[in-house]
Structures are given as structure tokens and as C-alpha cells.
Amino acid sequence: MRYAHEVGKVRAAEQALMARLPEGTLMRRAAAGLASACARLLPHVYGARVVLLVGGGDNGGDALYAGARLARRGAAVEAVLASAKAHPGGLAELRAAGGRVVNDAERALDTADLVIDGLTGIGGAGGLREPYAALARRTAHVEGVVVACDVPSGVDAGSGRVDGAAVRADFTVTFGTYKPGLLIDPGAAHCGVIELVDIGLGRDLPDPDVVSPWPEDLGVPRPEPESDKYRRGVVGVLAGSERFTGAAVLSVGGAVHGGAGMVRFASAARPVELIRQRWPEAVTTVIDPRPSALERIGRVQAWVVGPGLGTDRGAETLIEAVLRTKLPVLVDADGLTVLSRRRDLLYREAPTVLTPHAGELARLLGGGVTREEIEARRLEFVRRAATELAATVLLKGSTTLIAEEDRPVRVNPTGTPWLATAGTGDVLSGLAGALLAAGMSAIDAATAGAYLHGLAARIAAGDPIDPAPGLEAPISAYDVVTALPAAFRTLA
Ligand SMILES: NC(=O)C1=CN([C@@H]2O[C@H](COP(=O)(O)OP(=O)(O)OC[C@H]3O[C@@H](n4cnc5c(N)ncnc54)[C@H](O)[C@@H]3O)[C@@H](O)[C@H]2O)[C@@H](O)CC1
Ligand SMILES: Nc1ncnc2c1ncn2[C@@H]1O[C@H](COP(=O)(O)OP(=O)(O)O)[C@@H](O)[C@H]1O
Ligand SMILES: [K+]
């Protein structure tokens, strides 16, 4: 896992460590890591033109000390000061090493081979003010490499929020631990490649607030020699209605390719007929929306309920029946709309996974919360939802977040904006439901589901011969289903 800590905890850990070390040690460690990352990015340090954008805090200090190191190795280092308060020690060291302060930022940036963004780090608060904002905007036109010190300036380190101008870095060198805002969009999209520099915070850091899994953290079960279809997990899918049939086909597709031993599908006659044609491997039952409807379907280990189900009384009856079982249940789409008027159904003993996008979560939370507010403060709202709704909440969107009370929030590192197309959410519901039925915990099934879903979309959108960025093509939700086996294979 990649671990991220909230800003207050980073500062507390830094303070605890600093109290045991000679003054300035941490900043020198940070600057050494930053300078060596920059040296690796330059073809030659000697003679390279390096520009430092320096704010009035310690982030600027890091940039100045790193600049001094590069200057000592023969780089021509120029500093542009955004504040009259630039770190005095760093400034003195830069000057002693032969670096200089310049006023003409335009000229300096135009000819730079590498720019170090030291405007603001974890101390940045609110949208960038002038002249910081103009300098941050100007970096978009730099031909050289842009390296953010600790956090791209303009990105809120704690949340990833961007309010106005922000640096878009090619590379971010961050110190001690990741910050949540480096992993969550829109902040994440401003970081480029992230390198973590160890400054010795180790044992002073508490448990992380946010984590992002590597493939080896996912723990997706693989069939064993003695596996049979029941042991691999039977998932029940309650989806589709006479009016909406496509969502059911996609959800069952996600479950079939999600590794379920068996998929049991139950719905009205028309969706059942379509599933029989499209997914002959699913075991189907036509049901009426009665409280006893589940009895005819047979045993399952987990339920997926909601895609295309409609939001009428009948849908509510089925959702109520499923949530009254003692099995893990994943609720998506129309199921979430029904739950927003029946939150009482959520207070149950078995695990519940909710997979809303921001609009659905706004309805679920109620109280006037809007989709826009959730999109702007995703981390805060996903945590709040997990607590208030007593469920594992997977919040979809440009960065999918997964929260469960009293645990670090998981950030999904895969995915692509090409996923933003109708029906892909239905695929995720079936996929994560199959992983739940396979015996994964709610948070692990949601995490692995989001990971494989995002990866399948990337595989589907990418050019198989030249998977370079920029060569992707639009995908359908069905393409995501088809690419799931390739996504699973990458975990082998
Ligand atoms: N505390 C420590 O021990 C260490 C801190 N380090 C560095 O110090 C940074 C934190 O330093 P600071 O706490 O001084 O904070 P920052 O340097 O991140 O930001 C504070 C400065 O930015 C200005 N500022 C804040 N928000 C602004 C806005 N919206 N528009 C314009 N200006 C704004 C403030 O006026 C102040 O001058 C870290 O990100 C890291 O780079 C590292 O040297 C490692 C050790
Ligand atoms: N900008 C984006 N970048 C990456 N993924 C996105 C983006 N917007 C949406 N997604 C993903 O696309 C999927 C859409 O799901 P959802 O909103 O439920 O749509 P639908 O109900 O039509 O299936 C989710 O997995 C979501 O995380
Ligand atoms: K910065």
C-alpha cells in the first residue's frame, strides 16, 4: 500500500522528530532528496538551467537548499521569489553556492531546463494568491521539466482540492509520507510521477488516513485444485426490470467475469429472457416482487441489487427482502435511490456495500448536500457516508474512494476518464459482488473490484500494440466486461 497522512499528523511527526535532531536537519534531508531527484531528471547537471519558484514558507526553503546543491554541482540556478519572506538560511546558502535571485520570471522560465516549484507545500491554504497564482499558471508553458516540491502548489495537500491556479508537475518529490491530496483528483492529476523521499519520520507517523493499494495488496482469491463452483462463491443478482434491461446484462457480465463460481439472476420475465440469451452460464429465475421472492432463487453467498431495478414499490420490496438476509449485500444505482427514502434498511448486521456516484450519495445523505459539494470534498464526504450509513461506501468518480468506519480510506489507483460512459457502473456492481461472494471482506471486495474495473477500462481503451497515452479510444461498458480477464491476468 502507499500510505498517506493528513497534514496535521505530518506536522506532528515532523515536530517529534525535529526535537531529537539538530536544527535544520529535516529540511536538509528533504532538500537532498529533491536535488538528487532533479539531478536524475537532467541529462547533465553541470551547465543545466534551473529555476526555483520560491514561496515565503519552508516549502520555498526546501527549494532553495536543493537549488544550492544543484548550483554546487555546476547548474546555473536562478530563484524567483514570490514573497519578501523567502527562507533566509536557504537564500544565503543558494547565494553562497553561486545561485542568484532574478526578477524577470518570464525570461527565466522560458529558458529553464528544470523548474522546482517551491511556492507552497503542506502550508498552502485556499486558492493561490498573487503573485503565486500567476507563477503557477506560467509553469504550464514551460518547456523544461516541472518538479513540485512536496505538493504541487495550488493543490490542497489534505484533500486534493484545487481552487483556481495550480502547478501541473511532471514529477512530484514528496517528503516523509504521501499526502491524501497527491492521491485524490483533481490534485492527483497535477502530480505527474510521484517519488517519496524518506526523511526519517518512520516511527513518528501514526496509522495512515488514506491508503492506495498495489496489485499485491488486493488479495483476490484464485481457484484451488479442490475448488468447486459453490466454494468459489455464488452471487445473486437482482437487476433489470421490464423497462430497463441493459443494466442487468452488464451487471451479470461483471459477475461472470469477476470469478463467481455461479451467478444466479432473478428479475422480471423480459430481463430474464435477455440474460438467458446473453449469459447462458447464469442460472435464472423469473420472480414477482414479493417479500418471499428470494426463496425461489436458491442459495447464494452474496447479493447485488439495484442496477435497472426501477424505484417503485416492487423494487423496494426486493431491496428490503435482500437487506433483511444475513448475507453481504452490494446496493447500486436504483437500489441507492430507494435506500435514500428507506435508510432504516441499512442498519443490519451483515456487511453492506454501497456504490454511489456523487449525485446518488447526495441523495443518500440528504440534508441539502449537493453533488457539487461532494465532488469538491470527496474524502470528507465518503468518510461521513460510511459512518452515517453504517456501510462500506465506494464513491465513484475520477478518483474512486472506498471508506469504512474507523479504517483508512482506500484510493483506487487505476481507472481512466474513458470509464465515464453509461453502464460501466453496472459492470462494477457485478464484479465487486462476485468478489464478495468469493469470501472477500466488504472493503477488500470493493477495493479489488474498483482496481480491476479501472484496469479493464484502461486495457480496453488502450492501443494493444502501442499502449502510449494519447492513443486511447472510446470504450463501451461492454468492452470493460470483455477486458476483465486481461485485468485479472495482470495480478498473476
Ligand atoms: N516542518 C518540517 O519539519 C519540514 C517541512 N518541510 C517543508 O515545509 C513545507 C511546509 O512549510 P510551511 O509550513 O512553511 O508552509 P508552506 O511553505 O507550504 O506554505 C506557507 C507559505 O505559503 C504562503 N501561502 C499559503 N497559502 C497561500 C496561498 N493560497 N496563496 C499564496 N501564498 C500562500 C504563506 O504565506 C507562507 O509563506 C512542506 O511542504 C515541506 O516542503 C520539509 O523541509 C521537511 C521538514
Ligand atoms: N472522470 C472520470 N475518470 C475516471 N473514472 C470515472 C470518471 N467519471 C466516472 N468514472 C467511473 O465510471 C463509472 C461510472 O459509473 P456510474 O456513474 O455508476 O455510471 P452508470 O450508472 O451509467 O453505470 C464509475 O466506475 C466511475 O468511477
Ligand atoms: K510546491
From TrEMBL:
Keywords: ATP-binding, Isomerase, Kinase, Lyase, Metal-binding, Multifunctional enzyme, NAD, NADP, Nucleotide-binding, Potassium, Transferase
Protein's UniProt name: Bifunctional NAD(P)H-hydrate repair enzyme
Keyword Glycoprotein set for record: no
PROSITE patterns the record matches: YJEF_C_1, YJEF_C_3, YJEF_N
Described function: Bifunctional enzyme that catalyzes the epimerization of the S- and R-forms of NAD(P)HX and the dehydration of the S-form of NAD(P)HX at the expense of ADP, which is converted to AMP. This allows the repair of both epimers of NAD(P)HX, a damaged form of NAD(P)H that is a result of enzymatic or heat-dependent hydration. Catalyzes the dehydration of the S-form of NAD(P)HX at the expense of ADP, which is converted to AMP. Together with NAD(P)HX epimerase, which catalyzes the epimerization of the S- and R-forms, the enzyme allows the repair of both epimers of NAD(P)HX, a damaged form of NAD(P)H that is a result of enzymatic or heat-dependent hydration.
Any one Gene Ontology BP term: metabolite repair
Catalytic reaction list: (6R)-NADHX = (6S)-NADHX; (6R)-NADPHX = (6S)-NADPHX; (6S)-NADPHX + ADP = AMP + phosphate + NADPH + H(+); (6S)-NADHX + ADP = AMP + phosphate + NADH + H(+)
Matching Gene3D superfamilies: 3.40.1190.20, YjeF N-terminal domain
Originating gene: nnrD
One Pfam family, short name: Carb_kinase
E.C. number: 4.2.1.136, 5.1.99.6
Origin organism lineage: Bacteria, Bacillati, Actinomycetota, Actinomycetes, Streptosporangiales
